[in-house]
Task: inverse folding
């Protein structure tokens, strides 16, 4: 019999992560005694804030093999994706570049799909490529799409729902060989798997803080300097961040993101091995008790902490109702009258019925063996209760 925990068991680390206590400790002084504006470089408090922002910028850059000046600080990956995609398209159009095709993938985050879609109204041609049942983009599909002169290709590094890792280096080589820019939404990859923008041939990379144990509301955009990638800013202001992202920088949040990046640099391999062990432990318990349980997408090209599971009989809604102490997320989004299957699961070829029986489980830095054991027991019990 599983004892009731005195707190929820949190297994939704693809949605957000807890702030690491070391990150919180680094941020706190900048909310109080060290509150200077990093753009007020004419006095000591402003210079103090400027110095820590630049230190954090260096820590972020180091984690992806970039130069400090290639990092533009933003409010998060949604803003970074918008700046990268719309900024690249609008700058190219302003220079008379005739290329209008922008290629992305059916399983991208909504902010990428919407950004690409929005550009249709400005005369660009959005192309959305399918994925296989493993969740991966077929390089041949990209090669064919690139036969039409293309301005930009955007492919996410790690999918937020199914956890698959795309072959960025291979895909970027195809894009650049065809004269297109290559952008990746790395919100789920940054700090969790090794990334090297130079070796991978990446032109633009979007980063988020709250996926790697930093605060919500902070992120970054890598913009290649050699050969230089040019973007038009989305909004006007004081010209901060080399004119690409005006506005006063959020010093405490940036310090936290830099600290999180530095911790990831030191602990990534150890974290990934431990988390993968917990994932396999939980999956083993579930598979032993629930014949017919299916793991969606590639098992090998997959981030350590993700399990996207279709249960044999019970719906995701019933499982979550039966395990209220467990924080996981559903593979479906409920509207008032019906369950609408996730577009990511539909892109894999799952039926509406299978999608309705699917849960995403996200294991993270602060997940314990006791957590995954208790969570597996809760899901097994909830499945049995809903289908006695």
Result:
């Amino acid at each position: 019999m599983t004892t009731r925990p005195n707190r929820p068991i949190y297994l939704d680390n693809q949605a957000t992560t807890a702030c690491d206590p070391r990150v919180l400790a680094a941020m706190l002084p900048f909310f109080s005694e060290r509150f200077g504006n990093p753009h007020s470089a004419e006095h000591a408090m402003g210079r103090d804030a400027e110095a820590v922002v630049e230190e954090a910028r260096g820590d972020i850059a180091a984690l992806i093999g970039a130069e400090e000046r290639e990092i533009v600080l933003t409010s998060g990956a949604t803003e970074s994706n918008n700046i990268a995609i719309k900024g690249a398209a609008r700058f190219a159009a302003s220079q008379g570049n005739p290329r209008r095709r922008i290629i992305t993938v059916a399983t991208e985050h909504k902010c990428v799909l919407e950004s690409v879609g929005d550009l249709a109204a400005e005369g660009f041609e959005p192309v959305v490529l399918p994925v296989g049942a493993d969740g991966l983009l077929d390089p041949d599909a990209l090669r064919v799409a690139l036969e039409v002169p293309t301005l930009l290709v955007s492919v996410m590094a790690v999918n937020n729902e199914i956890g698959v890792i795309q072959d960025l280096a291979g895909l970027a080589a195809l894009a650049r060989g065809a004269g297109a820019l290559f952008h990746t939404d790395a919100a789920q990859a940054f700090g969790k798997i090794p990334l090297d923008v130079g070796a991978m041939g990446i032109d633009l990379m979007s980063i988020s803080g709250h996926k790697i144990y930093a605060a919500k509301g902070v992120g970054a955009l890598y913009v290649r300097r050699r050969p230089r990638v040019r973007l038009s800013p989305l909004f006007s202001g004081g010209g901060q961040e080399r004119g690409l992202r005006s506005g006063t920088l959020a010093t405490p949040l940036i310090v936290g993101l830099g600290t999180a990046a530095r911790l990831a640099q030191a602990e990534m391999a150890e974290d990934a091995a431990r988390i993968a062990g917990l994932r396999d432990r939980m999956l083993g318990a579930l598979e032993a008790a629930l014949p017919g349980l299916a793991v969606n997408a590639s098992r090998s090209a997959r981030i350590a902490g993700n399990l996207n599971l279709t249960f044999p009989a019970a719906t995701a809604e019933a499982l979550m109702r039966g395990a209220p102490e467990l924080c996981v997320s559903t593979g479906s989004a409920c509207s008032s009258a019906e369950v609408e299957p996730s577009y990511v699961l539909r892109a894999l070829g799952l039926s509406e019925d299978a999608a309705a029986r699917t849960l995403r489980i996200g294991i993270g830095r602060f997940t314990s063996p006791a957590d995954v054991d208790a969570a597996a027991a809760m899901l097994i019990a909830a499945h049995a209760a809903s289908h006695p």
Remarks:
- The domain at 21-263 is CATH 3.40.640.10 (Aspartate Aminotransferase; domain 2).
- The first strand starts at residue 9 and ends at 10.
- Residues 122 and 243 are 23 Å apart (CA to CA).
- DSSP finds twelve helices and 15 strands in the chain.
